[in-house]
Amino acid sequence: xxxxxxxxxxxxxxxxxxxxxxxxxxxxxxxxxxxxxxxxxxxxxxxxxxxxxxxxxxxxxxxxxxxxxxxxxxxxxxxxxxxxxxxxxxxxxxxxxxxxxxxxxxxxxxxxxxxxxxxxxxxxxxxxxxxxxxxxxxxxxxxxxxxxxxxxxxxxxxxxxxxxxxxxxxxxxxxxxxxxxxxxxxxxxxxxxxxxxxxxxxxxxxxxxxxxxxxxxxxxxxxxxxxxxxxxxxxxxxxxxxxxxxxxxxxxxxxxxxxxxxxxxxxxxxxxxxxxxxxxxxxxxxx
Amino acid sequence: xxxxxxxxxxxxxxxxxxxxxxxxxxxxxxxxxxxxxxxxxxxxxxxxxxxxxxxxxxxxxxxxxxxxxxxxxxxxxxxxxxxxxxxxxxxxxxxxxxxxxxxxxxxxxxxxxxxxxxxxxxxxxxxxxxxxxxxxxxxxxxxxxxxxxxxxxxxxxxxxxxxxxxxxxxxxxxxxxxxxxxxxxxxxxxxxxxxxxxxxxxxxxxxxxxxxxxxxxxxxxxxxxxxxxxxxxxxxxxxxxxxxxxxxxxxxxxxxxxxxxxxxxxxxxxxxxxxxxxxxxxxxxxxxxxxxxxxxxxxxxxxxxxxxxxxxxxxxxxxxxxxxxxxxxxxxxxxxxxxxxxxxxxxxxxxxxxxxxxxxxxxxxxxxxxxxxxxxxxxxxxxxxxxxxxxxxxxxxxxxxxxxxxxxxxxxxxxxxxxxxxxxxxxxxxxxxxxx
Amino acid sequence: xxxxxxxxxxxxxxxxxxxxxxxxxxxxxxxxxxxxxxxxxxxxxxxxxxxxxxxxxxxxxxxxxxxxxxxxxxxxxxxxxxxxxxxxxxxxxxxxxxxxxxxxxxxxxxxxxxxxxxxxxxxxxxxxxxxxxxxxxxxxxxxxxxxxxxxxxxxxxxxxxxxxxxxxxxxxxxxxxxxxxxxxxxxxxxxxxxxxxxxxxxxxxxxxxxxxxxxxxxxxxxxxxxxxxxxxxxxxxxxxxxxxxxxxxxxxxxxxxxxxxxxxxxxxxxxxxxxxxxxxxxxxxxxxxxxxxxx
Lengths: 287, 436, 295
What we know:
The structure holds three protein chains of three kinds. Chain A is mainly alpha-helical. Chain A has helices at residues 4-13, 16-45, 48-51, 66-72, 77-108, 114-124, 133-142, 150-174, 177-185, 190-218, 222-227, 237-242, 252-284. Chain B is an alpha/beta fold. Helix content of chain B is 46%, strand content 15%. Chain B has 20 helices and 13 strands. Chain B has helices at residues 2-21, 55-71, 87-96, 112-117, 125-130, 139-143, 167-173, 181-194, 208-217, 237-247, 257-260, 265-273, 287-292, 331-341, 344-354, 361-370, 375-382, 392-399, 402-411, 417-435; strands at residues 42-49, 75-82, 104-108, 146-147, 150-151, 154-159, 161-166, 199-202, 223-226, 229-232, 277-283, 299-302, 318-324. Chain B starts with a helix and ends with a helix. Chain C is mostly helical. Chain C has one domain (59-290): MetI-like (MetI-like fold, Orthogonal Bundle), CATH 1.10.3720.10. Chain C is built from 13 helices and two strands, in the order H-E-H-E-H-H-H-H-H-H-H-H-H-H-H. Chain C has a two-stranded antiparallel ribbon. The chains are: A mainly alpha, B alpha/beta, C mainly alpha.
């Protein structure tokens, strides 16, 4: 379908005025969807007096970096950023590997409790995270993990695994069994098949599922503020945003600038994997 | 085969140990007994509240801390400013995990009873009695650190609210400063009618401390002491009269419900500071926000009028205290630091920088002479300020928004005063009952 | 063929890391959640001041006899349903739209959607609040609504939150369904169009059946996510709205547990939510079974 010929043929079928109307509305919708983001970035650049103005204007004539300065000048901002990267990175890599193994087990083997396990993976996604904060708090405390990055990594791993396993199933299933047999006939060991043949084939799927674990971990506030009680050297980015929510009057400029700084890495990550994401999601839900 | 096995094994072993260790059946509780250690050096962690305009506070605290570190060899102090709204979660978490808890905290005086019941604060009765400066502590302030006769901290500042009004607006419209509650309501409406872009009196459905004087001025109470507990009195006829007076200020004649129902105390202060209200009930601690706002030089303060002319509506005696955590392993040092942070010198400077009213009667009189703006607040305090029920249940009633819900139900027309106050009374009694 | 694999333990070996992680960090806390819901467990118990006592079903009785709980439950179900339906409609419509346009508009819409998806919930909620602010927001200015306060009325507040939820969750549906449509062989669609089928008919009788597995997945995921909505309500209605009018179960549980320190009640609400979502899963499994598909 990626062949240009077929695409052109498909394009032809849609009559011209219709396609123009469709394209116009697509652009219009894109503008509407992007508008909140535009407003966020715009407010981050607006000078102090203009943000809360009763005459809101969709542009600014005097862009200012003050808000960003307030974000970056926070003590240990770089540390927060690094911590967020460590936490999200660890969760993405570990959960991808663990989920890959688990997905292989439930799709390429037949064993007792297989269906039960699958249902468990589905059910596990339904647990309201907020409700588990209390038990998790005590669990982390008992392992001495409170106030460390471990208290963020471990729960996020647990929360991103079920969805990752669930999504990866389709990919693993899509790899033909004949390939596996051929590999064994060629004398490959199971480990070799697993890591050198299956893993590369499933990789696009891993990228797609990683998007989910990355976003949920990167954007988390609840654990970040519940488990890192007093050690600011272990805090993550959301804390750098929360300081702008103040008792008297929120610092909108700071909030918007910090939000922009937080959203940007995810967006870059998204754009980089966009293509794989589309093909990946297509594969994940095929069965 | 080799590879996955070792991978699995490497991951599984430490994590399995982790799971095994957690097979205790009961949910977590904390062993929050006081620490036996009393180290004379090391790092002291301090949590203070992040204020509206925190820079001057930080400066005063930094000076105090530097002096303290100089005087105590080997002691280091690390101060963190925590947001007021989320303080409950944070301080509870600290009580639950002594390892990451601070040694010294600032806390709101309405939380005292609750924190003591939670077993979080250290009893400093002896040290407080032996502290010479404490002799001049004003009795209301001392009351706010005392539970069952024991002292759990040092008062840091007192906060009391009074009526801010716009001198320019009053002059332009030719209205007089209200002398009774009825006049206050009438004046607010009159101003809003002529200047519809202004709230006559900025009020908030979630502004409990702004509403309490109305209840007290009408002879009502939040709760009555009964035996060694409390029963709610919020639905008594007198209290209902006060509720009615306060809620009558919401609506198109003064402060439109669509906006004001959701406002809290800070929102009303912000509205006044931004020049959007002709009157507001603000604290001495709001003074700096007004000075920084658009209304600088165009406002004055008087005590909030009572029901009859010449009376002052009893204000809520707010304020914060400094306490030592029971779990501290540096008790002597921590108590010393508490005395420094809440000492006379610090309070004098805090007044200069932040406008916080000192808790010592002599220091307060001294600053009132220098700064005339505090006069109406000192006068309000002198007329008899009141306090919320000294019950551990109060923290819960406060946090579960019983009173804001009541005001909002009335203001938005969902329930009448009788039904809403009845419901609130029931919820309060539930909480008092549970607290024992 | 499976017998080639030999070792009966191999799947369990592969599963071990996942099971250990989930057992320790998910199943065990859920067990504790259930346990707490049967105990008296307030701050006094947590900090060790008083012993925990077994309450049997008392917490549940208390909950079920509270009329507010039922109101919140009803609001949650209706609100989640509205969110799921709107998200699916918007997502599917835009996915079809994506297949009808050329590269530039497609890329624009895709990037905008990814941007919405990438925004942290707390940020998204804050920006939307700002856009709809009665005093400073551009939306009221543009629509000429004056100082209409969106968060004052119960329905307008829910509508505002719904818009934000749809904004940040339609991209998942759109991208997934779009990926699914692209996987449909071109000839099938061509045949349909040669038969003179309208857009709607093509969708209904050709695409929808082929996309069914994908639609089921996005529906289930949307239900799971929207039923648990927390941040949007918490931020946009300031913890549940005026007099608690916009509470949903998850926020209600959080308020009970953390603001009210009634951890047992909060846990009981969590258990109720879990049971409701389990019921949804059972329906899903039955549907799958009726179609003769296996998991």
